């Protein structure tokens, strides 16, 4: 996929394009209404019950659009949302399901679900996405917004496991010819929730990275805002990326300090060896390939995978780690 490091995510937007930044919360683009013509777009949301997907769905339902969701179990969608959407039941990795889901779609929100048991990182990202690419082409989908990762054109990306595969997925989608925006993220703040138990019990959290390496980190709510803005904006064209970097770069030691202040108890970060990290993943049931791919990604992050994207006002998104700790982590720790 051709990408630009341009700070303007929509340098190639069509004539009359409404420009916006990934961080300008609430500025949804307008679906132009022509008298006598139906102006409502059909937007398809994959993974609408997930961390990012459910927030994208809520945001898009606040805009001017008809919404279709693709999900395995409709009961997992809250009833107040179920009433407002068209449902295609099944996995969005399935060819018949995506062909039903993408018929008549203007825009698609594309998210590959984590697959801890996949036989390879390519199977997890590329094989899962192939049927959708064919369906996007078959049905003339106009625009796709995908969840991906930072790191393109960096040295460590060659062996960055899940991220290498995620960027190959972007290339695959782009090769279908569809207008595409890859949302490129660092690690999510929300990942800290996976360690609530040890934060609570031991005042510790762990990763196989240096505690001093400063990295961007973003909140899933800001990713969802950026995704919804793009989905509701019918003006952009071409293929590019939109980074979502959060407001500042922080090290794990910085995060420990902020957590300690917000939670009112001492929280410390401890770097763990790669082998121990991988053993934990395997112990939790992850396949060899996905555990190695996750470790490779972490090693690449320690080598600068997430540090190459120039920070701009547009990709500096609003939710701070302190705010996230106050609003999300603290209630989870107290629960
Ligand atoms: N975490 C990070 O730091 C980070 C950074 C950059 C990019 N990413 C990317 O972000 C994505 C994960 O997003 P997330 O955290 O929002 O995911 P999540 O919360 O784990 O949600 C996963 C969603 O996928 C659905 N799902 C699971 N398996 C499925 C299957 N086989 N077929 C169809 N649907 C399935 C789940 O639905 P049900 O279980 O309800 O059916 C759920 O809606 C991944 O692609 C990852 O590479 C993550």
3D structure, described in words:
The chain is α/β, with parallel strands linked by helices. The chain has one domain (41-249, 302-334): Rossmann fold (3-Layer(aba) Sandwich). It has eleven helices and eleven strands. It has helices at residues 51-61, 79-82, 95-102, 121-138, 162-175, 196-202, 220-232, 252-263, 274-283, 288-302, 321-334; strands spanning 41-46, 65-71, 86-89, 107-110, 143-149, 179-185, 204-207, 215-216, 239-243, 249-250, 268-271. Strands 3-2-1-4-5-6-9 form a seven-stranded parallel sheet, with helices on both faces. Helix 1 packs across helix 7 (220-232) and helix 4 (121-138) runs parallel beside helix 5. The chain is globular and about 55 Å long. The N and C termini lie far apart (44 Å). It binds NADP nicotinamide-adenine-dinucleotide phosphate. NADP nicotinamide-adenine-dinucleotide phosphate binds next to helix 1, strand 5 and helix 5. Residues 47, 49-53, 71-73, 76, 91-93, 111-114, 147, 149, 162, 166, 185, 187-188, 191 line the site of NADP nicotinamide-adenine-dinucleotide phosphate.
CATH class: Alpha Beta
Number of domain units: 1
The CATH superfamily label reads: NAD(P)-binding Rossmann-like Domain
Low-confidence stretches: 2-38
Structural class: alpha/beta
Shape: globular
Q: Please summarize the sheet with the most strands.
A: 7 strands, parallel
Q: Count of DSSP E strands?
A: 11
List ligands, each type once: NADP nicotinamide-adenine-dinucleotide phosphate
Widest β-sheet, arrangement of strands = 3-2-1-4-5-6-9
β-strand amount:
15-25%
- The mean pLDDT is 90
Work out the radius of gyration: 20 Å
User: Roughly how many Å apart are the termini?
Assistant: 44 Å
CATH topology: Rossmann fold
Number of helices: 11
Helix content class: 25-40%
Order of helices and strands: EHEHEHEHEHEHEEHEEHEHHH
